[in-house]
């Protein structure tokens, strides 16, 4: 058959599985790499979007979760736990269903998008809202996994990184080589760690001639790596990356420095501007945190940091339907018309 088989089957020889491993999959990965015409014109570069919102639960987390849940299953775990700003929990909940496991989820109270809460609920996870932020949730999840029979599936779990690195493989496979620059939003910093690992492995094996410079962007109110210190009370409208003490901080700095890249911040205003541009000019509807990569590219271009003629990939990490509030907010209310073609035509400016 021609159906994409999921990242474990497609990249089996590059992942920690054996023939005996019970693969738990929703056929994640194989996501579109979409040429971005307006962004290319604005930067004078060849810009592509890696649209990770096309994964089974609507975010890149599925790449890591197929691996983490598969290995948890192989090791006999009956329950998994994660802390989440919403996407990890949606993904863990779905893959736990496929594996026949119990899934426990810890989210910061009042700070996850409605679509993500709906996913955790409908997949039947055991969800607790914690009176604290994501960093508090992660500490709690770690402590529970150390003291109770439940496996931690946050990106501190190395199998998560293994699964997520396959996005780099797909990009090199599609472009024929690594891009010059890869741009990502950064929250807990697992994904930039994973992409860098993937690019390094592929180039070491001669699958690409080079590795890209890694550019990461945090939200200004939640930019501990940029500031060089933990942010105690992180804030941003991009709730997915509202994180003050990233678990993979050291690895993100290594990715930045080894690749000759940088990690900078973008304001909520810049994020929302990129969010609207992506939907209205490129036809790609992402959640706000995902737009941080594109906001960062535009900021860098305005600062003269983007030499023309380069190949650039921006990962857009999550589907816009996860957090529709921002699509509706600030947009004009649709007008109501009678069932009347002339009236409708007039309102549409056709008459
Ligand atoms: N974009 C989205 C849509 C996310 O959900 C996340 C992280 C990131 C970017 C940042 O990726 O953490 O690997 O640097 N979401 C986690 C979660 C924290 O719980 O869903 P990162």
From TrEMBL:
Residues 24-318 form the Tryptophan synthase beta chain-like PALP domain. The modification N6-(pyridoxal phosphate)lysine is found at residue 61. Transmembrane segments: none annotated. Pyridoxal 5'-phosphate binds at residues 87, 187-191, 317. GO terms for molecular function: L-serine ammonia-lyase activity; pyridoxal phosphate binding; threonine deaminase activity; threonine synthase activity. Keywords: Amino-acid biosynthesis, Lyase, Pyridoxal phosphate, Threonine biosynthesis. Its EC number is 4.2.3.1. CDD domains: Thr-synth_1 (cd01563). It catalyses: O-phospho-L-homoserine + H2O = L-threonine + phosphate. Its cofactor is pyridoxal 5'-phosphate. One of its GO terms (biological process) is isoleucine biosynthetic process. InterPro entries: Ser/Thr_Dehydratase, Ser/Thr_deHydtase_PyrdxlP-BS, Thr_synthase-like, Thr_Synthase_bac/arc, TrpB-like_PALP, TrpB-like_PALP_sf. SUPFAM superfamilies: Tryptophan synthase beta subunit-like PLP-dependent enzymes (SSF53686). It comes from the Bacteria. Pathway: Amino-acid biosynthesis; L-threonine biosynthesis; L-threonine from L-aspartate: step 5/5. Gene3D superfamilies: 3.40.50.1100. It is an enzyme of class 4 (lyase). Catalyzes the gamma-elimination of phosphate from L-phosphohomoserine and the beta-addition of water to produce L-threonine. Belongs to the threonine synthase family. This is Threonine synthase. It comes from Streptomyces pristinaespiralis (strain ATCC 25486 / DSM 40338 / CBS 914.69 / JCM 4507 / KCC S-0507 / NBRC 13074 / NRRL 2958 / 5647).
């Amino acid at each position: 058959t021609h159906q994409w088989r999921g990242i474990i089957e497609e990249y089996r020889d590059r992942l920690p599985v054996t023939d005996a491993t019970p693969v738990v999959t929703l056929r994640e990965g194989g996501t579109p790499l979409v040429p971005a015409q307006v962004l290319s014109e604005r930067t004078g570069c060849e810009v592509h979007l890696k649209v990770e919102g096309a994964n089974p639960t609507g975010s890149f987390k599925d790449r890591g979760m197929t691996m983490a849940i598969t290995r948890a299953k192989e090791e006999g775990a009956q329950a998994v736990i994660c802390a989440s700003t919403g996407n990890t929990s949606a993904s863990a909940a779905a893959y736990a269903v496929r594996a026949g496991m119990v899934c426990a989820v810890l989210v910061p109270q009042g700070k996850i998008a409605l679509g993500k809460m709906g996913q955790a609920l409908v997949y039947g996870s055991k969800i607790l809202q914690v009176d604290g932020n994501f960093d508090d949730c992660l500490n709690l999840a770690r402590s529970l996994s150390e003291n109770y029979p439940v496996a931690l599936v946050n990106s501190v779990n190395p199998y998560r990184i293994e699964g997520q690195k396959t996005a780099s493989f797909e990009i090199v496979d599609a472009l024929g080589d690594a891009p010059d620059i890869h741009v990502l939003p950064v929250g807990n910093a697992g994904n930039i760690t994973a992409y860098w690992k993937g690019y390094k492995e592929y180039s070491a094996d001669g699958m690409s001639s080079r590795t890209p410079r890694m550019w990461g962007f945090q939200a200004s109110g939640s930019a501990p790596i940029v500031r060089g210190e933990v942010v105690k009370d992180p804030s941003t409208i991009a709730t997915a990356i509202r994180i003050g003490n990233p678990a993979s901080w050291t690895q993100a700095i290594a990715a930045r420095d080894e690749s000759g890249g940088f990690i900078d911040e973008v304001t909520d205003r810049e994020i929302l501007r990129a969010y609207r541009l992506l939907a209205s000019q490129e036809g790609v509807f992402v959640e706000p945190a995902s737009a941080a990569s594109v906001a960062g590219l535009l900021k860098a271009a305005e600062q003269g940091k983007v030499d023309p003629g380069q190949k650039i990939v921006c990962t857009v990490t999550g589907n816009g339907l996860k957090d529709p509030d921002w699509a509706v907010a600030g947009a004009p209310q649709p007008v109501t018309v009678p069932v009347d073609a002339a009236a409708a035509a007039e309102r549409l400016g056709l008459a």
